[in-house]
Amino acid sequence: MTQTSHIILAFFILSVATAQNSVMINANLDPEKRELSIEQEIVYTNTSSDTLNKVLFLDWANSFSSKTTELGKRFSEDFLKRFYFAKDHERGKTIIQTITNTASKPLKWGRHNGVSDIMWIECSKPLLPGESHTFLLKYKVKIPSSKFTRYGYHANGNFSLKYWHIVPAVYDTKWNAYSHKNLDDLYTPLADYQINIKIPEEYEIVSELERESSTLSDDKLNKTISIQGSNRNEVKLYIERTSTFYGFPAGDLEFISNIDDNDLMPEMKSVATNRIINFLQKKLGPYPFNKILVSESDYKNNPVYGLNQLPDILRPFPDGFQYEIKQLKAITENYLENTLLINPRYDTWIRDALHIYLMMSYTEQFYPEMKIIGKLSKVIGVRWFHAADLKFNDQYFLGYKNMARLFLDQPLSLPQDELVKFNKNIANAYKAGVGFKYLEDYLEDDNIIDQSIKDFYTQNVLKPTSSKEYRKILTSLSPKNIDWFFEDYVNTNKKLDFKIKSVKKRKDSLEVTIKNKRSNTMPISLYGLRKKDVISKTWVSNISGTKTVTIANDDISKLVLDYDQKIPEINRRDNYRNFKWIFNKPLQFRVLQDVEDPRYGQIFFIPEFEFNVYDGFTIASKFYNKTILKRNFEYNISPAYGLKSNKLLGSASFFLRKQIAEDGLYQIRYGINGSMFSYAPDLLFRRLSSSVNFYFRPKDLRSNKKQRLSIRNINVFRERNEENPVVTPDYNVFNARYQYSDFNLINFLGYTIDYQLAKNFGKLSTTINYRKLFLNNRQVNLRLFAGTFLFNDTEKDGDFFSFALDRPTDYLFDYNYLGRSEDTGLVSQQIILAEGGFKSQLEYPFSNQWLTTFNANTNIWNWIYAYGDVGLVKNKGVSPKFVFDSGIRLSLVADYFEVFFPIVSNKGWEISQPNYDQQIRFIITLSPETLIKLFTREWY
Question: Which of 83, 344, 499, 683 is an S-S bond match for 75, by CB 3.0 to 4.6 Å?
Answer without folding.
Answer: 83
